[in-house]
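From the pipeline queue, job 12 of 40. The input is one protein chain; the requested action is below.

Action: predict structure.
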Amino acid sequence: MVFNSLEFLIFFPIVLILYRILPLKIRWVMLLITSYYFYMGWQADLLYLILFTTLVSYVCARKIEASVTKRARKIYLVIALVASLSVLFFFKYFNFLSENVTGLLELMGFGVSEFTLNLILPVGISFYTFQTLSYVIDVYRGMIKAEKHFGYYALYVSYFPQLVAGPIERPENLLPQLKRKNPFTAYDTAVGLKMMAVGFFKKVAVADQISKYVDGVYNNLDKTTPGLINGFTITVATVLFAVQIYCDFSGYTDIAIGCARVMGIKLMQNFDNPYSATSIKDFWRRWHISLTSWFTDYLYIPLGGSRCSKVKHYRNILIVFFISGVWHGAAWTFILWGTMHGIYQIVGNITAKYRVMLWDKLGVSQQNPILVIAKKIGTFALVCIAWMAFRANSLRDLGFLYKQLFTGWSGVSITESMKALDMSVMALMTVVFSVFVINLLDKQINLRIDELHLDSGLSVPRANAYITVCWTVCVAWLILLASNAASSFIYFQF
C-alpha cells in the first residue's frame, strides 16, 4: 500500500480512530495488525521474512542479555547478524553476485552457464534489516535493555509509517513511544497534517510531474531524436533528477513523520535542506540522516573512524561509502555512486587546509556570502555528477552520458533541446516555482516548532490555522485521486 493511494486514504483514518478509542494495553495489537496489513498490500507472500527477522533478532537479543560469558554473547550476536544479513543478501544480491561471477569465469575461459533465480525484492528489506541490527548491536553493547514484550518489539520493526522507506529508527527513540499513551493534541495533529501536506506536494506536484523529463533522457539513450541527448539536455535532466529524488524520498519521509506525529509519535528527522550544503561532508549531514548516522555508529566508528592514521581514516571513509552504494542497490552504478562520494570526501579532507590557506591569502572570509554561494553551487554540481551514476540504467549508459555531458555541446540549440525534452517554458517555470515553494516549506518544517507551546484551548487564529492545515491535506488527497497518480516511491526499491 502506498501513501498516495485511495487505499491509504481509507486506511489511515480508520487506524487513527482505532488508535484513539482503544485502551493502551491492546493498542499495540491493533497497530501491529494494521502494520502487517499495510505491508501485505505490497507483498503478502513475503511477510514471513519480516516475521523471521523479527523473531531471530528478538530471541538473540534476549539471549545476549541473559548470557554470562562474553563468548556466548558474541555467538548470539553473530547468529542475529548472519541470519538477518543472509536474508538480505539472498533476496537482494544473489543474482547480482551470480551474474558477475559467471561473467568473470567466462573471461577466464571457463564455459559456464548463468545461474539466476526468479526472486522478488522484498519492499523495504534494507530498512527493517538495519533497524533490527541496530537493536541487537545496542543490546550487545549494553546501551539498551532487551525488550521482553515480543509484541512491542515486532511493532518497533514493522511500524507502518516508516516500514518500507524509513527513517531507520533507533530502539531507544521509537520503542518507548509505542508503549506510551501518546494522547491526541490539536498541536500534534496540526503539525502532522502539515508535514503530510508538504510530503504529498513534493511527491505528487513535483517528483511525479518532472519524472517524465528525466526518463525522457535517461531511458532513451538509444534513440536518435534530434537534440534529445546532448550536454544541455543531460544537464537539465540530471538537475531535475536531483530535484525528483529529493522530493520523492523526503516527501515519503515527511508523510511518514506526519502520520506518526498525528498519533503523538515523533520519528527522527531524515533531511535538512541537503542542497544547501557547502561540502560533500555537509551534504551527508543533511541527506538521509538516519542512514548516515547508522553507518557512522555501526560501521565507521567500529572501523576506527578518524581516530587512526590518515591512511586508515581514508580507508574507513571509502569502505563506508562503498557499502552505502551496495546497500542502495545490486548494481555497479550504485556502487560507483557510493564510491564517488567516498572519493569526494577523501579529496575534500586532503585539500581542506590548502583551500583555507588560499582564501586567507586572498583575504576572503569563510563567511563571505559569495564564497558560501560558490561552495553550495560546487557541492550541488558534484552531487549531480554522482546522481548520474545513481540514475543511469547501466555502466554503458553512464559512460555515454558522461561523454555527452562534457563533449556534447557543439551546435546545441536550447530551443530544439527543450522541444526534444517536450518541455515548454511554462513547464520549466512551474518546476522552478515548485522548487522555490519547497524551499520555503522545508524551512518552515525545520523551525523547531516543537519548542512552541499551545494552550489546551485554541484561540480563534490558531483554530483557523488548524482547520486550514486539515483542509490542505484533504484537497491534496482529492487532487491526487482525481489525477490517478498513485505511483510508487523511488526508495521502495531499496
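Job complete. The radius of gyration is 24 Å.
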